[in-house]
Amino acid sequence: MSTTASLLIFLAAILIAVIVGAKTKCNIGIVALVLAFLIGTMLMEKTIAQVIGYFPYKLLFTMMIVTFFYGYAAENGAIQGIANRMIYATRKLPWMLPIALYFATFVVSAMGAGAGATPVFMSPIAFSLAAEMGFNPIIAVLAVFLGSMGGGLQAWTSSGVMFKGIAANTLDEAAANTASWGYGATLMVMCTVFFLVMYLIFQGHKVKSTEVKKPEPFNKVQKQTLAIILITMVLIIVPVFCNMFLPNPATKWFASKFDIQVLSAIGIVICSALNLAKTADVVKNKIPWTTIIMICGMSTLIGLAVDMGVADAIGGWMSGSVPTFLIAPMFVLLSGLLSFVTTGPAVIFPLFIPMLPAIAAATGLSPAGLTIAIFAGTGATGLSPFSQGGSMALIGCKDDEMREKLLPKQFACAIAFLSVYMVAALLGWFNLFH
Fold first, then answer.
1. How far is 177 from 173, CA to CA, in rounded Å?
2. Over the stretch 277-327, which tens digit does the pLDDT of each residue have?
3. Angstrom distance (rounded) from CA 155 to CA 413
4. Phi-psi region for residue 34, left (φ > 0), alpha (ψ -120 to 50) or beta?
5. Any idea where the domains of the chain sit in the sequence?
6. What pTM, to 2 d.p., does this model score?
7. What are phi and psi of 384, to 5 degrees?
8. 184 vs 157, 228, 397, CA distance in Å?
9. 395-433 pLDDT per residue, tens
């Protein structure tokens, strides 16, 4: 079968999976698995066992174990308590409250709630503050989305580990690790700067005073949960920075034996032993099974395409036809445009990342930097109201008329955010990560 025919077949399969999943309300990962079996056994003459071999078991384990651990803090309310305290701390400076809302969302998301779960409880808080204080509700949307993204995709979080796992399916461990930490640094800068600029453009400082309720004190269970999370974060972050700036045998050994998966497993045992939340409820409510199935199913289908050389062919064409300085901006643009209509972890990342080794070899560009460009473009247009991230940021808006007015503003902000990343790519930002 020619490469062109293979490409058309797999693009059609991806489209069919998305359409059938949307029409039937069936998880598109399951539809993708069915198509993977049909294509693999009938067109590629593979056995069922060989097709199953494309299933990303390591990614499944990583996403499950990390979200399981952080789920205890989300289940017992410890994470939301942090957000309430950060907002309460700025109650005497009304103009600071929208900014505090952003940083509270950032911290909550970085503490383990993640980019997917944080908007569920931060969006209602944001829209309530917007109504009481009179600031533009688009600032509430931006604070929730950008804060959730900026904090929730750091390397030690559940979402950040998921991104690293997807990259590690193709890249070597070192490149995937660089991409993970590099994207976290990129988000920390870009999300914060973009929010502050939008805060000024939409006059977020023009607010009126309001009464902010004093949060209830943390209970014993919440304090224990936060202590365990903080210890885990220190054990993840400190060895990484020591190995970067002060390399030594002790931290190198520790980092090689106790990564986030191992520490999460230990954390689960401790949280369960201390009864910090009902484990059955955490498993049921806080592990994003739907997302995990979707990503793993679609990754299986795209793994077949990679095996047939589709990704290498596209990567070879790009490295030979596109000027080197435009490759990173092109990945930002393409991933951003695709993110309007499909999901990054399930479709865009597994489709684009396998192209990177060939492109990097031909151009000398960093595969980690190109991976960050793909992540960045996808995340930028995730702000669109038609994407999961943008729609979740709107979850706290109960006024249908206001929601309708916010849609074009969200769309415009998504395009603006994508443009910022394209400019950053042209200026060589992603070349910093090797």
1. 6
2. 999 999 998 888 887 888 788 888 888 877 877 777 777 777 778 888 899
3. 26
4. alpha
5. 1-53+289-310, 54-287+322-432
6. 0.79
7. -55, 140
8. 10, 22, 28
9. 778 777 888 888 889 989 999 999 999 999 999 998 888
